[in-house]
Predict the structure.
Amino acid sequence: MKNNQPNQHGYAPLYTGQARIRQLLGYLAIGLIGWIGIHYWLMPFFSQFVTTAHCHDYLAINGITWLWYGLFVGIPLLIFIILAGFGWPNGRRVLRDGQFPAKGKKTFRPTKIRYGYQAKCIGWLQLLAPLVCLGLAIAGGLQAQQLITMPIKASAYELCP
């Protein structure tokens, strides 16, 4: 029996060794590019922006507004989009097939196939988990609105160019 074929013992099919390495290298490349981008571009820009956000307007919106809404709404929404993009299609397949992992889904290590109630719980969890981030974004919007109205110290304007 080949390594990537389902077996009769109730385990999901496995990726081949070559496919595992290819995916691992792909994930490492994406992670490295993300880390370099965050470390060398985003964090220096963000550090500079935070100190002078109150001094600038972008698209006729004050920088403080961009800062608070970006942190409390933008980041949870970005996480929601990522989780929903990966979780919802897989959760729908799990609920449709009535098993986890879904039919034909390959795994990296031997994974026993779960059926029935356990599979439905996993499927629903994959569908509902992103909604937590959506709730955080809504709550963050309310919090950001309160933070925007806080007064800025007069000494902070000395940093403005």
Notes: The two ends are 70 Å apart (CA to CA). The CA atoms of residues 24 and 30 lie 10 Å apart.
